[in-house]
Amino acid sequence: MARPNQVPARPKGAIHSKTQWRDRLEAWQAHHSTCAIESLIRLTRSPLQSLLTWLVVAIATALPATLYVALQNVQALGYNWQDSSQISVFIKRQTAPEAIERWRTELSQQAGIEQVDYISPSDALAEFRQHSGLGEVLNDLEENPLPPVLLVQPRAEASQGAALEQLLASLNDHALSDEAKLDMMWVQRLQQLIDLASRGVFFLALLLVLGLLLVIGNTIRLAIENRRDEIVVVKLVGGTDAYVRRPFLYTGLWYGLGGGVIALILLALGLGWLSVPVAKLANLYHSEFHLQGLNFYTSLQLVLLAGLVGLAGAWLAVGRHLRAIKPE
Amino acid sequence: MIQFSGVSKRYATGQDALSRVDFHIERGEMVFLTGHSGAGKSTLMKLIMLMERPTSGQVVVGGRNTERIRAKQIAHYRRDIGVVFQNHQLLFDRSVFDNIALPLQVAGFQNADIGRRVRAALDKVGLLHKERQNPITLSGGEQQRVGIARAVVNKPALVLADEPTGNLDPELSAEIMNLFRQFNELGMTLVIATHDIDLIERMNRRVLHLEQGRVVSGGGV
Description:
The complex is a heterodimer of chains A (about 325) and B (about 220). Chain A is an alpha+beta fold. Chain A has 2 domains: about 35-80 and about 190-320, no CATH class; about 85-185, Alpha-Beta Plaits (2-Layer Sandwich), CATH 3.30.70. Helices cover about 70% and strands about 10% of the residues of chain A. Chain A has 10 helices and 4 strands, in the order ααβαβααβαβαααα. Chain A has helices at about 10-45, 45-80, 95-110, 120-130, 135-140, 160-175, 185-225, 230-235, 240-285, 295-320; strands spanning about 85-90, 115-120, 150-155, 175-185. Residues about 1-15 of chain A have low confidence and may be disordered. By secondary structure, chain B is of the alpha/beta class. Chain B has helices spanning about 40-50, 75-80, 95-105, 110-125, 140-150, 170-185, 195-205, and strands spanning about 1-10, 15-25, 30-35, 55-60, 65, 80-85, 160, 190-195, 205-210, 215. In chain B, the strands form 2 sheets. In chain B, strands 6-7-8-3-9-10 form a 6-stranded mixed beta sheet, with helices on both faces. The mean pLDDT of chain B is about 90. The interface of A and B includes residues 30, 229 and 241 of A.
């Protein structure tokens, strides 16, 4: 019978240390998976407390996520409305009014154009005087600095993409035209508002993350208190800090991941609830707009991010409280 | 195995637990540590376990100057020392087997290896048939034997026992001491703190007697 310890002589030392190293790695992996599973089981053993923590995490995650989704939708809506942008054509200053009038008529008969309005320099000045409050100053001007302008409203089908680009180019290239510009002021304003709101959402998310760190940190602190005896014994029999820390870190991770998943569910429920009225409203405005939720990758990111926050909260608590527990 | 040279320990409270303690314990010895409570027995054990650091002096354990062992290395250092407590410090949320397996799990042993070693340790203390039970269901003597199995399962070179028979009747105490003697015969160095004078006299081993933080007898080899 072959006995394993009677294998022909080999450089035993090296092999021994190699297997030991591999054993340790395997034991380390085994401890990780044991910790992961055991900490999850531990959570299910106190279902009410775990559920409450999960809900807190879920709400704190769902709140900024909802705002984020809302912003994404407003932005999408903004792109929809951008279709109806008009083009301002600034005309060379010395152009005769008759030439402008001729071009205007020509343009209004063009296929892609809905409407063309003419604003003469004096109209523009009058409007400017009214809105700027610079009446007196403007009286001192020797001549009117404002150019004549044609406001060109493209038809819906020519109001985006290549058709719009082409129209814009042709208006720019016309002999009478000084410059043609897409009038996107309000779109830009909307964009600015969205940027501002994004920062607001980011700030809110940051605050909520801080809150989450505290909540999870506190929950982990209680878990550590509950297992004080075990920690003392483990430390006495030579458990490293990493070994002691591991189950608590997994607990934090589970709190985060679980909360993230519940947040996704809450978000989906909310969107489902809103989508029908939104679609009806959009229909009234002859819009194809419909609510967009998070896609797969963003959802995944959200859950992972919540998991990371859970892990970080646990890390903070563990760092603070495990050091305080010493064998006596 | 253990060498104390001019070791003093003063706690933050100003209390002098040990003052200028010198002694040497050889590898393979079985030594009793006696003295009234407060004489410094626990402090001495804590210094060996690196639960405390000396205020002055040098503690050398297994040829290592403990002064040079940094905080991060303490865990690994402790794996070579088995400890038995008076209140045995068993965990009641797991079986006898899992309690004894703890030092092995911590040290990263393989599961198959753990099973083999835990059963060997249980066999030595005569509790092989109780491995699946929760230690809370065991008697005081049995619990202490589980504690001893946990201390020796890793086959440490040094075992410290702090009042291991403190709560046990004379018969059980003698049983526990017998166990210790068997481990000593296998080559383990044992340091046993106790004030059970009868027991010590029957064992006929070296006694290190502490009084008010000083070694008053048994310090030499």
